[in-house]
Amino acid sequence: MRSLAGDVIRQAFFHRVEGKLHKRLYSAISESILNGNLNPAARMPPTRDLANELEISRNTVLRVYEQLQAEGYISTQQSNGTFVTHSVLDNLDARPQASVNSEHPVAEDRSVLSDRCLQLLHHASASPSQWGPFLPGVPDVIHFPHRVMKKFQDRQVRHPLPQHLTYDSTGGAEVLKVALTDYLRTARGVRCTPDQILITQGIHQALDLVTRSLCNPGDSAWTEEPGYWGIKNILRINDVGITPMPVDEQGLIPGQTVGASPKLIFVTPSHQYPLGSVMSLSRRQHLLSIARTSGSWIVEDDYDSEFRFSGQPVPSLQGLEENSPVIYIGTFSKTLYPALRLGYVVLPKTLSAPLKKMHSELYRGGHLQVQAALAEFIGEGYYAAHIRKMRQLYGRRRQILVDLITRVMGIDALGLYNSNAGLHLILQLPIDSDDADIARQANNSGLLVRPLSRYFVGTVTSRGLLLGFAHMDEQELEPAFLKLAAIIKASLAD
């Protein structure tokens, strides 16, 4: 059935000829609401009717409606339909009015910033855009069973527990810690009890907590070279010295401690980030011996270990020994989706109580209803099933990208350590190439690759590009890669 709102949306939708269907529809509806073409309390067309009018999939319309409802543009009234919310325009009049010179950017005033802030800004590496072709570290968020998760969240809302609606001082919802204990023991070989688990808002908060709690200004930490930039920025802002340790096909190469021992040793043993090597058993045992002898703590970042596409899963370093000197950190950002902002730390028993209290004082944990819903999601088997499904999907997409690199750029363009795992690949470039400049050109063309050289603290010994593939549709991979290959070839020919 045709409606006035449907006509408004139809006109705005077909006015946009570029972009994916769901993005075009989202922009058409949200901008129609904001510019007043769809007024508050206006009835939205039923999803089936709108899909027929626009000749698109109903699932696309449902997905956009869910996003708009989550952002407060529209709301659903039980058995009555979907309407534009009254509150969506409430704050528009309070926004600062654009000046006549608003097209000119406001100059930054960095004179008021602290030295550590300036240092962090100098080394900032997060991409300004967090969705696009080849962006590393991003999972497929479309195939996540959102409706199933919503069922568990709705159950928590219908029957709320008071302890889930106040501040958290115990390191997270107990039901999630219990569910994680069972999962980590089975899937990752982690040795722990629920009281050793602390739930955090993502892996960065976990790393910051551990660094603040265990390091004094001037202490040092070993990091992988190349290694994750986020760890190094957290060390910098906490005034902890960075000692980069080289990486080979067996993982981090431990060195001789000269002077004071490192307080922390950061490693990604199951899938080294970004190169992809797997730490050997002998190297793991050596590292554990160093930590015990020197009184250091190993921080094991197990960020995407679930996604191995051949062979047996690599067990955690933490589980090799009883009461090992290892702080194990994991995240749901890779297995579910980043915006969930949930990670976890498995603490040695001697650190559990003080770090939980530290976490409560610094961060005031919350989101307990979401955590309880996630515990049900895990406990009823949906989490393991989702990982199995994504493992197959990512393995297929990875193979497509490997075949493209081999066919277009040659076998030598594949990274040094092809461990057949993870959410990204390394596209190797000549050592004398400028991978940062190539990445800038690609980014300007909408291809969100990252230069390998940015992951080094000291001398850059390898050049390349990080290509994320997990979130890309299969049909999107070839045209995007051919576009990237043309940029690379033109740059190398100059």
UniProtKB/TrEMBL annotation:
Domain HTH gntR-type, by residue range, is 19-87
Q: Which PROSITE patterns match?
A: HTH_GNTR
Q: Tell me yes or no: is Glycoprotein among this UniProt entry's keywords.
A: no
Molecular-function annotations in GO: DNA binding; DNA-binding transcription factor activity; pyridoxal phosphate binding
Among Pfam families, the record links this protein to: Aminotran_1_2, GntR
Query: Keywords for this entry?
Result: DNA-binding, Pyridoxal phosphate, Transcription, Transcription regulation
Check the record and name the InterPro entries matching this protein: Aminotransferase_I/II_large (IPR004839), HTH_trans_reg/aminotransferase (IPR051446), PyrdxlP-dep_Trfase (IPR015424), PyrdxlP-dep_Trfase_major (IPR015421), Tscrpt_reg_HTH_GntR (IPR000524), WH-like_DNA-bd_sf (IPR036388), WH_DNA-bd_sf (IPR036390)
Entry-linked CDD domains: AAT_like, WHTH_GntR
Q: Does the keyword DNA-binding apply?
A: yes
Q: Which family does it belong to?
A: In the C-terminal section; belongs to the class-I pyridoxal-phosphate-dependent aminotransferase family.
**What name is this protein filed under?**
Transcriptional regulator, GntR family
Natural source organism: Erwinia billingiae (strain Eb661)
